[in-house]
Amino acid sequence: FYRVNQIASLLFLPLALLPLRWAFAVFILCSILLVAFSVRLIRELLDEGEGSGLCRGFWGTITLCILSLGPVYVTLTFGQVNALVLMLSLGYVWAVKKERYLAAGVLMGFGFWLKFYPLFLLVLAPLEKSPFRLLLASALSMAALPLVLSPILPLDLYIHYFQVIYPGLADQTAPHVYNQSWIGLFTRWAGPKEAYFSWGPVLIDPEVKLINSLFQVVLFGWIAWGYCRDRAHKFLYYACVMAVTPMVVTYGWGG
C-alpha cells in the first residue's frame, strides 16, 4: 500500500480483524458496491442530458458490464483502492456541477491522498464559475487530511514518501499487459515477450519522460479548450480527463 500512498493502508486496518478469506470477501463486496454507486453517480450526472431517458434496466446492464472490465478485475484481485478513487472522482464532478465547491474540495482531498490521479481533474477547475473557491477548498482539504491523521501517520512519513519513494516510482514503468499507459505499451513493444507479465521496474528514458510531459500538456490543454467552447456538456469533458489519465501516467491503472 505504501507504494501508492500510506493513507490508503488505513482503509484496510478493519479487515485485519477478520480471517484472510473473509477479509478478501468483504473487500470484494465493498469494491462492487462502490462501482455500483459510481454508476449511480454517472446516471445522475447525465440526468439533465443524454442519459435522462435511459431506463433502470439499461443502467443495471451497464453496471454488470463495468464489473467485467479489466480495471475492476485488477482492483479486486490486487486489493487496490481504485473503486473508491473512482467514486470520489465522480463525486467531485457531481459537486462541481452543483456548484458545491466546499464539498468538491473535500472529495478532492480524500481522492488525492488515496491516489494522485484525481488531481488531473483540477485542470478544468480554472474554467468553473468560482475557480478560486474550488482550488482553495481542494488545497485546504489536501493539506488538512495529513494533519488530522498525524497522530496515526506521522508527518515524516509523507516527507519520506515524496523525497524517496515517489521520485523513484515516477522514473519507472512496467511492461506488464495490465499496464495500459502508452509508456507501458512502448516498453512492451521494445522488450522481450517474457516481460509481458513482468511488473519490472523498468527505468524510463529522460527523453520519453519529456515527450510524455509535453503530450500531457497538449492533451489536457485540448480538453480544456473544448470545455471552454462547450460548457453544456460538463461531464463529457471531465470524463475525458478521467479516461485519458491512466494512459499518460507510468503505471496505468496500477500506478
Kindly describe this structure.
- This protein is mainly α and 255 residues long.
- It is 63% helix and 2% strand.
- It contains ten helices and two strands; from the N terminus they run H-H-H-H-H-H-H-E-H-E-H-H.
- It has a two-stranded antiparallel sheet with strand order 1-2.
- The longest helix is centred in the first third of the chain and has 27 residues, at 20-46.
- The chain starts with 19 loop residues before the first helix and ends in a 7-residue tail after the last helix.
Overview features:
255 residues, mainly alpha, two-stranded antiparallel ribbon, 2 strands
Number of H/I helices:
10
User: How much is the average pLDDT?
Assistant: 85
Q: What is the spatial order of strands in the main beta sheet?
A: 1-2
What fraction strand?
Answer: under 5%
Order of SSEs: HHHHHHHEHEHH
| C-alpha geometry | globular
**Cα distance spanning the termini:** 11 Å
Q: Main sheet?
A: 2 strands, antiparallel
Beta-strand segment tally: 2
User: How would you classify the helix and strand content by structural class?
Assistant: mainly alpha
Rounded Rg: 19 Å
Which spans have pLDDT < 50 for at least 5 consecutive residues? none
Estimate percent helicity. Answer: 55-70%
SSE arrangement:
Elements lengths: L19 H27 L9 H12 L2 H9 L3 H16 L3 H14 L16 H18 L6 H16 L1 E2 L8 H9 L11 E2 L2 H24 L4 H15 L7
Antiparallel strand pairs: 1-2
Q: Brief description of this entry?
A:
By secondary structure, the protein is mainly α.
